[in-house]
Amino acid sequence: MTETRLDLDQYxxxxxxxxxxxxxxxxxxxxxxxxxxxxxFLVMLVLWAEDGQTVGGIGDRLFLESNTLTPLLKRLETxxxxxxxxxxxxxxxxxxxxxxxxxALRETAKGEKIEWVDRVFEGDQDAAQALRQRITALRDxxxxxxxxxAKAALAKPASDKPPKE
Amino acid sequence: MTETRLDLDQYxxxxxxxxxxxxxxxxxxxxxxxxxxxxxFLVMLVLWAEDGQTVGGIGDRLFLESNTLTPLLKRLETxxxxxxxxxxxxxxxxxxxxxxxxxALRETAKGEKIEWVDRVFEGDQDAAQALRQRITALRDxxxxxxxxxAKAALAKPASDKPPKE
DNA sequence: AGGTTATCTATCGCACGCGATATAATCGCG
DNA sequence: CGCGATTATATCGCGTGCGATAGATAACCT
Lengths: 165, 165
Prior knowledge:
The structure is a homodimer. By secondary structure, the first copy, chain A, is mostly helical. Chain A is 60% helix and 7% strand. Chains A and B meet through helix 1, helix 2, helix 6 and helix 7 of A and helix 1, helix 2, helix 6 and helix 7 of B.
């Protein structure tokens, strides 16, 4: 019959897929304390690092687009963590700004610790870093050509000539 | 200000999260040819290896539960790839069986190739295997211990102080 | 200037993932 | 045997992801 033995773990894509699910579940207790979902927490991380970013700017860092971010940001606004206001200079953009409550949440978050990394790697920080780098390298090779996010934001973009297709 | 520079890639959880998204996008062209979503494809993989499994059996392999699988399986049934029938011996269970169309899809799938693994690893199979193993090891350390139901009860002697909670 | 094109955000629809709960069948135990 | 506990699946609600598309505003071009 079709009793071909199947080991799903032989598929790299399933390994990553299922690992991401497992990580999500492992993060859940911490996020519940903050009252945030994981994507919401990522947005707060981005805003804690730099307030007043645009929807698109946040999306560049998180690899998300407005169809995902707009509803998410509205929920964060309803929860009282952020304000959403059109940029006066460019009315197409929406600037996301932390409220006092949103900034305060950062202190709560700092008090919490991601416990599962220690539990899994048992102090072997090098192994954790190596794995992290390999995974991000894999991701960056898969993503369509987009400028490396954090660094590009630092330097003022000199007007260059993008080669057109 | 709060201009702490943020490198999200320093977080292992974000690395995995974003890598899983990237892998999903990379798989999309292949899945579109098959007319399946990625979770649907995983279910088909499981069934191609062993037909006639129960909902729970499939869920064990994919780390999913009936709240996710039931609607997904109904869609596969609507698409004509599977049948869902109650097990005669145990009417609680639902057996999932491939249709002829479902089996035929396997041949189509075999003709397709996951191209991005080669593109990313450029023939370095060892690197791909090593990464895969590290990721699955991470996942397995994160997942709660699942005891094979009946067997664990046998070995357990009569220490009848159930954990109060 | 005016018309075209590009950019930015929002909206809609669908498919997961999952917590909470419901329902039905089976098991366990006196 | 009967009744409570357990198991298997289903249902409901919400929050993402994401393709497709719409709408408004800005940039561009001759």
